[in-house]
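Human: We require from you a standard protein entry with sequence in single-letter code and fold as tokens, and nothing else.

Assistant:
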Amino acid sequence: MAQVLIVDDEVPIRRTLKEILEFEKFKVDEACDGLECLVQLKKTQYDVILMDIKMPKMDGMEALERIQTLAPDTPVVMISGHANIDTAVEAVKKGAFDFISKPPDLNRLLITVRNALDKSSLITETKVLKQRVSNYKTQEMIGESASMKKIQDTIDKIAPTEARVLITGSNGTGKELVARWIHEKSNRSKGPIVEVNCAAIPSELIESELFGHEKGSFTSAHKQRLGKFEQANGGTIFLDEIGDMSLDAQAKVLRALQESKISRVGGDKEIKVDVRVLAATNKDLREEIEAKRFREDLYHRLAVIIIEVPPLNDRRGDIPQLVEHFIEQICNEYGIAPKKVTKEALVALQNVNWTGNIRELRNVVERLIILSGVEITAEDVMNYVGPFKRQES
């Protein structure tokens, strides 16, 4: 049953609206002014709010602005006996779903409430779908080796905390997957995880990318843009390849971590952000600090917990399980039955020198699926991976 809050200082209006809505099977609460509305809103999540504009203590316009902070997804329908176009436009600009004049037309009121409920339902469904998509994209962590079990145990321990984590390891080892699982098992899992590839963003754009910019702050800034820190508010930001970030940007990130505040490029306003920071690098940051390419104070801020992801060559026992996983995944994407792989082929794959780690293994499995016959054999591995890749004995 949908819950509606009626906010009006006139008792007869509240009673009339309540009777109409309860007859239509809505659950209805009342508030006599904007302040009482905000108190109610902290206790109950409403599907729609019907609110008068002219009220004592706190009028509807001020309450509307507060609601945008407290419950931004709740549709608010403004009702006023002093209606004019300017007031209606102002209400909509401030976030109102619709504007109805007093005395309200019964049919118009019910249609508006139902439309507002549809919007509320769509928002809820969108959030659920986004969460499902996020969960779907988080692949399994495959492997029974001691190093993988240690990583999984560490994730279980640290995920529920707010500790910052530095994930180290060479390219293709799965650092991003570790970050995603930390987020999935954290108390922030319902919030977003925003990934930033620091190596892929030009140094002159990294500040705008992370912290956003105001309209007109530079030549191509045609409109205001929210940065990754604001987009990750309430969730997690994953700074991948942070060892490639410029020293200027490092200083700004350090300030954001110290104060939980950021400023957009070209803006003076400080914006409070609530994010958990995870970072990853394929570089030895201690060496980068010695070479004056990385700030030591930022390193200590990021490296509260350090997780080292081992190269695939150090966990060869996991290769058969990884191969089976990739075969099932890739064949499913291609819409074909999973191919079988012989024991000899798995042994041959375990003897490959995997300089590209998990990423390279997946590419090789895809190549073998495409080029092999009914099943993947050791001969296929020799032909399509190449003897030059074999581990030297």
About this structure: The chain has 16 helices and 14 strands. Residues 285 and 393 are 32 Å apart (CA to CA). The first helix runs from residue 11 to 23. The chain has a mean pLDDT of 88.
